[in-house]
Amino acid sequence: MRTYRCSSVQTVLAAALLVATTAAASAHTIHVDQTGGGDYLTIQGGIDAAAYGDTVLVAPGTYYEHLYMGPTADGVTLLSEAGPESTIIDNEGASYYSVIHCENVGPNTRIEGFTITGGYSHYWGGGIRADNADVRIVSCTISGCLALRMEGGGIGSSDSSIEVSGCRIESNRGGDGGGIGVWGGEAIIKENTIIGNEAVSFVSNQTGGGIYVSCDHAEITDNLIEGNSAVFSGGGIQIWGGGSVTILDNRIIGNTASYDGGGIALYLATCLVSGNVIAGNQADMWGGGAVDVRNPGSSPPRASAQFVNNVFFGNTSDGDKSAIRIHQGGPTPIFHNNFFADNTTYEVLVSSTPSADTIDFTGNWWGTDDPDEIALKIRDCNDDPALLWCIDFSDWCTDPSCDGQVTSVEDPPEAAPISWGRIKSLYR
C-alpha cells in the first residue's frame, strides 16, 4: 500500500482540486442543429469536438446516426434541448450497431432527454451499449431496439457502472434482458417505465423480459415493470447469481414466462425483495409470481433471498399451480410480512430439496385467518415426504393489515374431525 507524508497528501489534493476547477472553468456548450443553426450538423460531430465537462446540446429533430462515446467523451453530457418527444436518434436498424456505444468513460458521462430507436446490436445493447463505462442515462425513451445474441435489447451493460432513471423502455428485444441487461459491474435502475419488452434469442438463455441482472451490485427501485415476456424465465425480472441485489418498491405486473418465474426469477441470487406489488404475472410451468432456485453444491453455499412486505396478487402458473416456487437446496429464503391473495392454487410450493430444513414464512397474510385454509395453500414436506423442506407459517396475520397475529393453534376438541390441513397446522 502506498503511503504519503502530510505535504505529499496536500500536494495531491491541491492538484486534484486544480484539475476539477480548471475543467469547470473551461467547460462549454456545443450546439448541434441539423438545420444549420448550431456549431455542428451531426451529434457525432458535436461529441468528437467535446472535452471533459462539456455539454453537447442537441436541437429538436430526427438524427439518423449511430454514436460512439469513447475515452475522449469522458465526462461529456449529451443533452437534448426539448426532450425525447421531439429529439430522436434513429439507427434505422443498421446491422451490428447500437444507437449509442459508450466505452471507457467515467462517472460524469451523461445521456439525457432523447428517444433512441432502431438499434441492432449483434451482441449486447441494441439501444445503448456500455463497455467498461460509468454512465448515467436519464429521461430517455428507448424503443424498437434489438440485441441479437446477448443481453439488453434496450440497454446492455458489460463490466460497467450504469444508472438508468426516469426512462421509458418499451418494445425492445434481447437474448437476456429484453429491456435492460446487466452483466458484471454495478447498476442502479430507478423510476423507469419498462413495458412490453421480450427476452428472445436463438443463442442465449432467453431470460429477463424486462430486466436481466448478473453483476456485483444492483438496485432496482420504484419502477413500473409491466407486460414483458421471456421465452424461458423471469418475465419481469431475472437475477442470475452475482453479488447483492435489492428489488424495492416496484410494480411488477402482467409479465409472462414460458417456463418459470412470471414476475421474478432468482437463480443462485443473494437478493432482498421488499415493498413490491407483484400482481397478475403468469408462468407456463412454475411460479407465476416468483421462483427462487438455490445452489446446494457450492461451498460456502451461494444465494440468500428475503421477501419482505410485498403484495402477491392474482399470479398464476399452468404447470405446478404455484404463485411462488422454491427449488433445490442451499440457504433457505425468508418470507415475512407479505400479502397473499387471489393467486393460483398454491401460494408456495417446494420442490427437489436435498436435505431437511424449515423455511420461514411467518407473519404473512394468506387471504384468510383460518390455519386449515392456509395449510391447503402450501405444498411442502407434509404433502410429500420426499420434498424434505417444510413451510413454517406460524404467527400468521389474522387480517390484511397484519394488525393482529396468532402465535399458536389450540388442539381441537376430541370429537372434532381432524383434516390433513389441521394436522399440518398443529405441527408447525
CATH topology: Pectate Lyase C-like
Number of domains: 1
- Helix count, DSSP H or I runs of 4 or more residues: 4
Give the C-level CATH assignment. Mainly Beta
Q: Could you state the oligomeric state of the chains shown?
A: single chain
- The helix content, as a percent range, equals under 10%
Return residue spans where pLDDT drops below 50 for at least 5 consecutive residues: 1-22, 411-428
Let me know the number of strands.
Answer: 43
| Overall form | elongated
User: Which CATH architecture would you pick?
Assistant: 3 Solenoid
Instruction: Name the average pLDDT.
Output: 86
Beta content comes to 35-45%
Could you please describe the fold and organization of this structure?
The longest helix has 21 residues, at 6-26. This protein has a single domain, classed as Pectate Lyase C-like (3 Solenoid). The chain is elongated, with a radius of gyration of 25 Å. β1 (29-32), α2 and β2 (55-58) form a beta-alpha-beta unit. Mean pLDDT is 86; it is low at 1-22 and 411-428. The strands form four sheets. The chain has a 22-stranded parallel sheet that branches. Strands 3-6-9-13-16-19-23-27-31-35-39 form an eleven-stranded parallel sheet, with no helix packed on it. The chain has an eight-stranded parallel sheet with strand order 10-14-17-20-24-28-32-36, with no helix packed on it. It is mainly beta and 428 residues long.
